[in-house]
Amino acid sequence: MTDNFRLTKEAAQKYNNHSVPAMFGPLAEATMQKVQLRSGTCVIDIACGTGALTREIARKLTGKGRVVGVDLNETMIEVARSNQPDCRHVLEWYATDVTELPFEGATFDYAFIQQGLQFFPDKSAALQEVHRILRNDGQLFLTCWRAVSPFNGALAKALERHVGTDAAIKARAPFSFRDGELISNLLVDAGFKIARYEPLVLERRFIDLRAQIMALPIETDLRDAGADVTNKVVEEVADALSRYDKEGVLHVPQEAHLFVAAA
């Protein structure tokens, strides 16, 4: 993950308060509806953020298993640690690089990467490391965005006009690695076999558009640009998304790839 996505504690908390309930929580739920975990197994969630998917895994896993969340951002891990779910498992949290996971080989039965692969500088090395820590019959569940969302597209255009190219690139970054064939080839090259693929279509809900924009990594760019510029950006994004308005709440579609790969 690049330095652009290293977050302050305040930014990590905003992400957890706004982006998780709006998008990453629902994505975690949708992913887990497609997954069957054997009882008493060991599971790792890589690039776990503040633990939205990790907590869903812990709720679903039966028996005496092990649930681990890892993320490069120490601040994300701090927020994750403070949100222990109501379940039988005590979650483990590590702030570490995906290419240097602090686990022995063949430790885990399942690995998850939810919207993390696109941010790994060395994707091949990351996937090879994930393959290393999985047992021979282990599985990887990986999601990446399938298309630029209308929200991020509108936000990037507004940022380009009023803030600058760098901020616009940040807004599009989550969707920078969406070629399904390329992802599939990377998985195979890392030693995986594609067991299943399916597209997911979710709905991102915006009750407070400004708050969700300010929970993104471009918050610092907007604060530096000033209140007037921020207001213009929010207004232009709201106008661009007006067709998704349902009784004051924006319901914006987002498409994702779901790959299930066998180690």
UniProtKB/TrEMBL annotation:
Which Enzyme Commission number(s) are on file for it?
2.1.1.163
Q: What are the record keywords, sorted? A: Methyltransferase, Transferase
Does the record carry Methyltransferase as a key word? yes
Domain Methyltransferase stretches? 43-138
| Enzyme type, top EC level | transferase
One GO MF term attached to the UniProt entry: demethylmenaquinone methyltransferase activity
What is the name attached to this protein's record? Answer: Demethylmenaquinone methyltransferase
Q: Which organism is it from?
A: Ruegeria atlantica
